[in-house]
Amino acid sequence: MMRLLLAVVLCSTAAAQLGTLRLRSALTGGPAGPSLTASPSTLNFFCAVGGADPPSQIVAIGGRNVTLDNWSATKTLASTTLTPTSNTVASNLTVAISCSGLTIGSYPDVVTVASTTAGITAPITVPVSLIVSAPARPSPMGGKVGANGKVVIH
User: Fold this and answer.
1) The whole model's pTM is what?
2) Are residues 3 and 44 in the same domain?
3) Secondary structure of the chain in the HEC alphabet?
4) Are 49 and 118 found together in one domain?
5) Domain ranges, residue 11
6) 144, part of any domain
7) Tens digit of pLDDT for each residue in 2-40?
8) Is 115 found in the same domain as 40?
9) 35-39 and 105-114 as β-strands: parallel, antiparallel, unpaired?
10) CA–CA distance, 153 with 143 (Å, rounded to integer)
11) How many domains does the chain have?
């Protein structure tokens, strides 16, 4: 629990005689309570229309100041897949994206991880960004038929 410690500092006898007081605050903190952790805390995926899906990414789910005994994860987009969606211990969550049927654009998603482990009072979120770009265009090629009948490409 955070406490704000307010200290009155008298800068000099002269200042005190003039009735001038300067205040200084210092933020002090006690031990942090139990909480969920996710590493990395954000995910970025990229693919091209009609191209391959991007590689899946792993998020380590754990607990800070607590032994995690359960967690569950949800997402918002149909194109995002989570494996597993829950566990009874701290573990890895695999996040995969399917670009099939998506058009050029940005697709934000949020993975929310919650737990009923004693002391954990709030879920955590992992923002997911998917950028779908235009398909790669082949470079133009030129050529001609040589005098010997062979095709010369340049």
Assistant:
1) 0.70
2) no
3) CEEEEEEEECCCHHHHHCCCCEEEEEEEECCCCCEEEEECCCEEEEEECCCCCCCCEEEEEEEECCCCCCEEEECCCCCEEEECCEECCCEEEEEEECCCCCCCEEEEEEEEEECCCCCCCCCEEEEEEEEEECCCCCCCCCEEECCCCCEEEC
4) yes
5) 1-30
6) no
7) 333 333 333 333 344 434 333 333 344 556 899 999 999
8) yes
9) unpaired
10) 4
11) 2
